[in-house]
Design goal:
Layout (H helix, E strand, L loop, with lengths): L1 H10 L2 H15 L6 H32 L9
Helix pairs in contact: 2-3
Length: about 80
Amino acid sequence: MDELAKLPATLFSPAKMVYIAYVIMLVWKTQQPSHCEFFLVSVLFLAVEIVHNDWGRIRLNNSGEKNRPEWLKPR
């Protein structure tokens, strides 16, 4: 059940939302970018997504746990 509660955050992370907006803008644009440009931007967004999920979120969670008041910490 906990995994189901985390699903929206997994599906709609900030980097994914920006990438989806990029793809939508490309669809509406009359002149299409080259395949190389699209590939490079896609790789950049993938790298941002990996850094966000595997480094940033972990650091934020650890920082939040350190700053949690004693009365809120699990026993």
